[in-house]
């Protein structure tokens, strides 16, 4: 898909971070953009901002990706407004306060929250949009956001997040194969934001965590609103990738029809290579990749 002008794009988690940048870049490219997010106040502010960037229409719709009925309602509204959808970014995702905690000590509400947003959110998007996208028969793409952490190799300090992103990778590989059997007009893509930690507000995900997933107030506590805040508070020295860079990379991959949207990274290549070699050699994993 070389030209985004006039195309219809839906982005979940579109009111912040990478999702907001995708909406902005698509609007600038002349696409009609549907911003879907759980936060209605932020949605309206972002809608006004993005509406001024391009010539296409911009819709801002509240959506809770953990609920199939909410994603179905999103799809019904979109298909009532537009003849089809060309680009679906299943991008909504959350991080959890799980760092350095033992997997056996994590509360089930944390597991449910991470799985329902990061995994079932993708499944709900596929179920709600793909049938009508296929029916339209036009060139299109479903892009699911994974992570090198879990999606390619798993870090031991974030068991829930890594597990969810491993699931997204598997789901998208299967989707790719099944779409090929449908004729290949509609494609799948798998986005791995990076190559460094992305400077988003994912650490503040607890702020929009529904009460159904809360056992205690600590689970809604926001320690840092961005990775920049984390670095400033802790004095850590690490490179950050800005969400604008991820969006630019993702749209370039879409234009090329690329499935594996993996930015070049020596660290990722080394970790994935070591993991692959250990699997083929039937060796036990080391204490860290």
Q: Care to describe what's here?
A:
The chain has 289 residues and is of the alpha/beta class. The protein has one domain: Rossmann fold (3-Layer(aba) Sandwich). Helices cover 45% and strands 13% of the residues. It has 9 helices and 9 strands. The strands form 2 sheets. It has a 7-stranded parallel beta sheet with strand order 3-2-1-4-5-6-9, with helices on both faces. Strands 7-8 form a two-stranded parallel ribbon. β1 (8-12), α1 and β2 (32-37) form a beta-alpha-beta unit. α1 (17-28) packs parallel to α2 (40-51) and α4 (108-136) runs parallel beside α6 (159-181). It is globular and about 50 Å long. It starts with 7 loop residues before the first strand and ends in a 9-residue tail after the last helix.
Structure described in brief:
The chain is α/β, with parallel strands linked by helices and 289 residues long. It has helices spanning 17-28, 40-51, 68-81, 108-136, 148-151, 159-181, 227-234, 243-256, 266-280, and strands at residues 8-12, 32-37, 58-62, 87-90, 140-145, 186-191, 197-198, 240-241, 260-261.
